[in-house]
Design a protein that fits this description.
- This protein is mainly alpha-helical.
- 46% of the residues lie in helices and 11% in strands.
- The chain contains four helices and two strands; from the N terminus they run ααααββ.
- The chain has a two-stranded antiparallel sheet.
Length: 90
């Protein structure tokens, strides 16, 4: 998992749509697939997949390989933490 090293980097990653996505995952606890998350958010699956990757790369979401159901790859999306704390050093 990654991390965000500056406030500018955090703001670049945590757009309003990605924040809403992250909140939905934290509230529910996990989603069994990107498709289920996209359906819950009424958003395009490809866009949600890109947003999940960006949030996972920043260490804000956890994406784990799930047991395959039929063809293709399946992943679970879960929160890294229930709360996000930002500490600013000025």
């Amino acid at each position: 998992s990654g991390s965000v090293e500056s406030m500018a980097a955090l703001l670049a990653v945590l757009t309003p749509r990605r924040n809403a996505l992250s909140e939905a995952v934290r509230e529910r606890g996990r989603f069994d697939s990107i498709g289920a998350l996209a359906t819950a958010l009424h958003r395009d699956r490809a866009t949600v997949s890109r947003d999940v990757k960006a949030l996972a790369d920043a260490g804000l979401l956890r994406v784990t390989e799930a047991t395959p159901r039929g063809f293709g790859r399946s992943v679970e999306v879960s929160p890294v933490a229930r709360r996000l704390t930002v500490v600013l050093a000025i």
